[in-house]
Structures are given as C-alpha cells and as structure tokens.
Write a structure and sequence with these properties.
By secondary structure, the chain is mainly alpha-helical. The protein has four helices and no strands.
Length: 106
C-alpha cells in the first residue's frame, strides 16, 4: 500500500470517528476526559486502520504507520471541531446514548 492510500484511509476513518466516539462519551464528563478518550480512540483506530489497509506486515514501515495513525488523529479532531460539534450532531449522539438517571418515586 502506498503512503497516500494509507493516509487517505486514515483521514476517512478519522472523519467519522467522532460520531462513534460520541456513543461512549457522556455530556457530564469534563472536557479534559472527553479529549483524552477521543485521542486514545483515535490512536487505536489508527492502529486498526494500518492493519486493515496493509495487514500486520504494514507495521514494519514505521513512517507509514505513524503517518496513518496521525492522519486518523488529525482528521478526527479537525472534523469534530469544524463539522460535528457546530452541527450539534456529536453532542446529540452523546446525550441520546447516555444512560438516563432513574427517577425516584417520592
């Protein structure tokens, strides 16, 4: 697989990743916790993207591996800030998928 193909795959994964991350995040969590989770998920998704695009042998190419992982991270952070947060889609997913507090009968 070429570098451009790998980076393109990473950017595509990263562009959709904030919507998947929003499923596990909760509105009540601090911004710091949300960012940490988003970065960890992006790094894991980057590793999976490398393996998916070129197989496990792809990891022998350190530059290509890092470029793909960083493409996922950059695309996920950028699309969240520029697309998913302003359209309120990611925050909506967070609130819809968050467990609701059980109301107590008085």
């Amino acid at each position: 697989m070429t570098t451009i193909d790998s980076i393109t795959a990473g950017a595509q994964v990263g562009a959709l990743l904030p919507l998947l991350t929003a499923v596990v995040q909760r509105p009540a969590w601090s911004t710091r916790v949300k960012k940490c989770i988003a970065v960890v998920v992006a790094l894991v998704a980057g590793v999976v993207t490398v393996a998916g695009t070129g197989g496990w042998a792809q990891f022998q190419h350190g530059g290509l591996t890092m470029a793909t992982i960083l493409a996922v991270l950059a695309a996920s952070q950028t699309t969240y800030d520029l697309v998913w947060r302003p359209t309120t889609l990611a925050p909506l997913i967070e609130s819809v998928t968050s467990p609701k507090a059980v109301e107590r009968a008085s």
